[in-house]
Design goal:
Eight copies of one chain form a homooctamer. Chain A has 169 residues and is α/β, with parallel strands linked by helices. The first copy, chain A, is built from six helices and five strands. Chain A has one domain: Rossmann fold (3-Layer(aba) Sandwich). Chain A is 46% helix and 15% strand. The first copy, chain A, has a five-stranded parallel sheet with strand order 2-1-3-4-5, sandwiched between helices. Chains in contact: A-B, A-C, A-E, A-H, B-C, B-D, B-E, C-D, C-F, D-F, D-G, E-G, E-H, F-G, F-H, G-H. The interface between A and E is large, with 41 and 41 residues.
């Protein structure tokens, strides 16, 4: 059985820089993905179609990034039983608090898994954690990644020691 | 040409008490309306259908009330060019701030007209104001209503004077 | 019967750049409008006069943009039964949350239709939606505009695909 | 020269309980006052008239209490050069944060003196402090009041000691 | 291969009523689970042990509910590569905003999937969606559940129509 | 009797640019003032002394600007019965919301008159309004100033019309 | 050398119930304390005196509880070099957010150690932790207390298991 | 008995500039310290080890700086009875409000002493105040430091007077 794919949906291509860490981590974990620009409000039929057909088209997880009144993750979740991960974008006057509330405060029955504002990297890792439940290789990659994270702390520690030496008596 | 109707959509029948002032004012202004329970997340196809067909079915304005991640008004607006008025409900831990942000912070191109949290009366009056643009009778009713509002202040003033007399020297 | 005009009121000419999308869309939809600088606090008589006479002067909708303790839309609404659309400006220390609350939390009886913070484009589109209720030509223009919005998503999708190709393996 | 009066304006008689401490303190300081119900949105002409004529009618200070999109103090301030004190009311879903922002965030040129949410007692004391600048008797009363405040702390201290004795070992 | 279990961790047994919908839905979906009271701050070693051993002990997903400075989900996530779902509790002065921010704003590398404040039902459904990726039977149950949700809207619609008939002319 | 002076207190000389409009308006209204840097926390004795002696030293109003946990206006108010106007500064991570709450939420008995965040101009105007209660010349100046404000709107209106002409068809 | 005492200051005796856990824990840890009602605004001289003399009077730590514009902890800190712990009270319209910001956002040079809103128990424990640095007996008591905390989790776990058994299949 | 050391823990070396005032003040007060980079989420075992062994390793106080869902101070506090001071960092979309809530809203039993957002200087001074309880020399240094603070106000006062002279008539 081939590995399930990830469907990544952005409200606009202008969200690409914020989502780049997500794409890079999906590649790092060798998780196949497809990405689309699709707006809950400008192209609602495309949004519905993508979500309705996601399972049949071989997708296992949906990641959706949106700002302001960020309806995209919730709209997708209303049309599928696949897990949907929402990434609130730090856009506009409210710096993403509006997007966070619009994504996380879903009513009972239709969940969206919210990650941090602009937290696209964690959307990819959460996806990997979900897909690893039935994929031992991916599971091993995640354990290695966690070790890398831990080791990166040592590196930062060394840099701190250097910086501390610059403080005069 | 018959008067256009108003389509009122509630996320749940439990929102009825909050919406009752809206229904009463629509009756007071003799504006015909239809009301439905419809959830953006639990019945997304019904939501899309209601909005897509609203114009043909003789509706002129849509009022939608929703709480939490209140996507309903925005989802309806994505499927119609009729004006959509959103009423944020004071539900849950955030007392309607989540619903307000989800309703008012719509992206460019797809507006929702937001009224106050639990402000269902104003949704009805705004609807009357919109429909009165091409309806002289309704326009007169609104002018009378505004006079009633002004006179209600006199009544309240009298009650204040009574209350003030209870303060001892 | 000639088309009704839109009365656009800005608290200051410094709000012009934020309101430019509104003016451009009104022009695109061929909706006649007049614009004034008028402050609820510095020129309250002019504000009252503009609102009191708006209907007789051929206006159908009022758009008002204001920041901080944004009283302008509410003050105008207190003097007219025309629909008033309020645009909260992202000014000052609170980034427009103050303006949003001052505009949207109107008391029962005197509605203002709030759009997003700095959401002047949507004020124009909402105006067009309102005026289209009795104007078939405008109604067609809005349907075309909605199709343009949908097509713009395809363009953005192509740009996303280009950007994705830049991510190394 | 007779003492100037205070004009106290409430958006509704339902705000009377919250404003009672203000009325009692004005009486305590023997400051003459008149109270009116007047809404910035329901009776805007009355609001303008009250403010425009306040100085000629012998008023020296205006106190205005309002909730939600609390425009009343700012609207009054736009029509007078008398000092206007605004009391934000804890009404509705936002518990008075909306009223506080609507009252305090006034634009440059037209100040309102904001006190705490539901802080009507302080509106009276601030009024007394303002009027005492040219009234030695009132000035003495304020000094006595400040001493009473200080002594009330002693009383509370005694009650604390009693309560502390109830804590078991 | 037996179905993986769900590890549900509560900061206190007093969170049981809020979590009851979660437990009931896990039962409804026939998903095996174990529940523990464990505090990130009072029993940090137990928290670490539960998370470190979760995979070996047959768990596939962790659900953690916490209020105030809700560290529990993040602490568990730091010790495992299993997906961790965080449920912010509406406790204390800040009504769960503190818990929401503490749960959702995780740093890059260690995700927690946040659901709504007090949204324990959605934690169960999200869990089912995750586990259904490799479980066709569970996948079918979710599709049925989604249909039940949709049908519940019809029932609510009927109740609305009854309530509407009570509004007098 | 000579005119009373205004005591302006800044937490730091770095607040000077924000306070410059206040100083300029006091000069414009020919109101004598003295300015001091004084911190509620770094120089609490000086703060107490300034407030305790303010009346005897010929001051009529105190203006105090402070940021963060802005205790300065409240501390001054605790030592005097002169009216104290507080200007919250937009400093630090919370952009002045902390200062606004610290200044406006004073307990019953000890008022501070809060103006907008960074609203130093209004602190000067409010001061003028207070002092004008017993000063006819100052009262006239304020009426003229209000007329200037109103006329400045005309100027801005002309600039708007110029800007509007730049929008292409 | 006798153990240093703790100075506990409440803005009002009405804060006693919220502070009771603090008093009980100080007794439990056998830490001597004195408690006073003292208001930063109503009795500023007493506040200054208490802080100025605290060290000489044998105090080692000051705990101060205050609500609204909670200046008390900061005012005390301005007059002493003893560590001051601030407890924000959940009073008034803002539920303690105002008190939290007023207490924690102290300017550089004059720290206050803030604990949670209504977190009086933690003020006592933090005090014990501070005093235990030079008190081995107290240090042992804290270690025992931490073990009790950990064991209380087991008790709660048992109660959870009972409650879980009540959920029907 | 040698002086106890301070353990300063940063979530990342990128927090060094924000923490520099803390390091400089610890040096100024001649308080020995050790600094580590350690993440509650990336290196949870190191965090636990540092806290568990802190007392034996001669530490008396722990300072921890963290941003976003700032769990580090609370996680350290769960493993030690030493006083833990938390410094919320102004990182990310929420400007440190998330970190503040995550640090200060600790549950009963496990306190963290929160200082201001980015308030690292005060973390050092609070540490000095705590350690000075059993160290007369350090106590003297703090009294001198407080005098320096007070004198710095005089310097700033002079600079203000210079700046004031630049305001034209």
């Amino acid at each position: 059985m081939p590995m399930k794919k990830v469907l990544v949906i952005l409200g606009s291509d202008s969200d690409f820089p914020m989502m780049e860490p997500c794409f890079k981590l999906l590649k790092k974990f060798s998780i196949p993905f497809e990405a689309h620009v699709c707006s809950a409000h400008r192209s609602p039929r495309k949004a519905a179609d993508l979500a309705v057909n996601a399972r049949e088209n071989g997708f296992g997880v949906i990641i959706a990034a949106a700002g302001l009144a960020a309806h995209l993750p919730g709209v997708l979740a209303s049309f599928t039983t696949l897990p949907v991960i929402g990434v609130p974008c730090k856009n506009g006057a409210l710096s993403g608090v509006d997007a966070l509330y619009s994504i996380v405060q879903m009513p009972s029955g239709v969940p969206v898994a919210a990650v941090a504002i602009d937290g696209s990297a964690n959307a990819a890792i959460l996806t990997a954690q979900i897909m690893a439940l039935s994929d031992e290789v991916l599971s091993e990659r995640l354990i290695l990644y966690k070790q890398e994270l831990e080791m990166s702390v040592d590196l930062r520690n060394e840099r701190l020691i250097e910086k501390l030496s610059t403080i005069g008596e």
